[in-house]
Amino acid sequence: SPDGAERREPPQASVSNGGDEDGGRELVELKVIWNKNKYDVKFCLDSTGAELKQKIHSLTGLPPAMQKVMFKGLLPEEKTLREIKVTNGAKIMVVGSTINDVLAVNTPKEAAQQDVKAEENKKEPLCRQKQHRKVLDKGKPDDVMPSVKGVQERLPTVPLSGMYNKSGGKVRLTFKLEQDQLWIGTKERTEKLPMGSIKNVVSEPIEGHEDYHMMAFQLGPTEASYYWVYWVPTQYVDAIKDTVLGKWQYF
């Protein structure tokens, strides 16, 4: 009846304002975008990034450990949406593959092959190999970024610069999180690589300069496709691997 419709309307309005739905806590409207799908979500401003990942899991079936969630960079799990200044209408980008997708790509046999390669690489430190020595013997670049030993930091908002590539030329790394791309820039050109196309990332401390690493991005099916970068500050190594591979990678 018309009267019944009127009686139902006030609670409906209060839900949209967050009055009933979350114990009076303030809600924010988000647009969650994953795999070309868009989801309109109302979520509590005082919930954490980890709780938002659980919500995304319920929407997409994508486990939290396999999500890269981005809002002005990687979303910190421990902070609330209010703390990172999420506002109404904010776009939340989600990158990641479901368990089935990952298993289809990474068979146990391939994972075992990666383990064998890792063991082989341990036999001789990479920085003693001839191909790497010719770059490392040049010494630190003049504009090398400062390192902080024993600390893990999130990626800076500026490109990582002051590094060499295998030909001894200057190289910088720019992490375009919203586009899920890694830009490798030299004086001559900039390669724009989808992070999903990078098969693996390896790194090793530089002997005598353990606060810096040499690092390689595997761009093709074999080790011949490794793109080497030298003098990466140690505090960013884990963040680079997590950003490029996702924390769910198991090799």
TrEMBL record:
InterPro entries: UBFD1 (IPR039120), UBFD1_C (IPR057455), Ubiquitin-like_dom (IPR000626), Ubiquitin-like_domsf (IPR029071), Ubiquitin_CS (IPR019954)
GO MF annotations in UniProt: cadherin binding; RNA binding
Entry superkingdom: Eukaryota
Compositional bias annotation for Basic and acidic residues: 1-10
Pfam families assigned to the protein according to its UniProt record, in alphabetical order: PH_UBFD1_C, ubiquitin
SMART domains documented for this protein: UBQ (SM00213)
Domain Ubiquitin-like: 28-95
Span list, region Disordered: 1-23
Protein known as: UBFD1 protein
Gene source species: Nesospiza acunhae
